[in-house]
Design brief:
The chain is an all-alpha fold and about 60 residues long. It has a domain at about 20-59. It has two helices and no strands. It has helices at about 1-15, 25-59. The longest helix has about 35 residues, at about 25-59. It starts with a helix and ends with a helix.
């Protein structure tokens, strides 16, 4: 039981050392993720259409 209490105390002490990101940092990171996801989706969609048209032209 002492080990468990000691683990919880040490975990709490480590969490207090963490530098949490600000709201602005999180919002800017989310924007980057959304924009990059949309760009990658558009590129993959374009590649898919080109390959589909190529296969249809062959067959």
């Amino acid at each position: 039981m002492n080990k468990m209490v000691q683990f919880i105390k040490e975990s709490y002490a480590e969490l207090r050392k963490v530098v949490w990101p600000s709201r602005d940092d999180i919002i800017s990171s989310v924007k980057v993720v959304i924009v990059s996801t949309l760009i990658i989706a558009a590129v993959l969609g374009l590649v898919d259409v080109v390959l589909l048209l190529g296969v249809q032209a062959i067959f």
